[in-house]
Amino acid sequence: MLRKYFLILILLLSAAGAVTPVQPDDTHYNQQDYLRQISANYAWALSTGNANTVKIAVLDSGVDSGHEDLNVLSGWNFVSNPSDNNSEPNPASSQISYHGTAVAGIAAAIGNNGKGTAGIAWNAEILPVRVI
User: Fold this and answer.
1) pLDDT in tens, 76-87
2) How far is 62 from 104, CA to CA, in rounded Å?
3) Is 67 in a helix, a strand, or coil?
4) Closest C-alpha among 121, 33, 32 to residue 69
5) Dist CA 106 CA 4 (whole Å)
6) What is the CB neighbour count within 10 angstroms for residue 109?
7) What secondary structure letter does DSSP report for 31?
8) Side by side, which strands form the sheet with 125-130?
9) pLDDT digits (tens, 9 = 90+) for 17-48
10) How far apart are alpha carbons 10 and 4 in whole angstroms?
11) Listed residue (72, 9, 74, 76) closest to 45, CA to CA
12) Could you tell me which residues are beta bridge partners of residue 127?
C-alpha cells in the first residue's frame, strides 16, 4: 500500500517537472530489473543516501572490504572470533563472503560511477557483521 502511494507521489512530481528519473551509468545497471520494479530511478532524483547519516549493517557471511563498488566500514566477526571484541576490518575471510558482498551491493553499491552495479543507497556505508 505504501509503495502505491509513493509511486503516485513520484508520478505527480514527475508530471509537474519536479522529478526527473536518474539513469546511472553503471555497466550492469540494465540487468538490475528489480531497481526499475521499485522505481529506484525516481527515488535517486530525491536522494542517493548520505555516508554521514546512512549506515547499513549486513548480517551475513561477511563482506569483501576491498570491493571497488562498496564503502565498507570495519566490521564484526561473530563466527571465528566469538570470545574477543570481534572487531575485524574485513570479516570476509573466505569464499562464503560472496553472498554477504552481493547483499551489500544490492543495498549500497556506489552508483553512477561507471563500474559494476548500482545499489539502492549509493552513498551509504556498509557495516559488515559475519554471523554465518
Assistant:
1) 888 876 665 555
2) 9
3) coil
4) 121
5) 22
6) 30
7) G
8) 55-60, 125-130, 75-77, 87-88
9) 667 889 999 999 999 999 999 989 988 998 89
10) 10
11) 9
12) 57
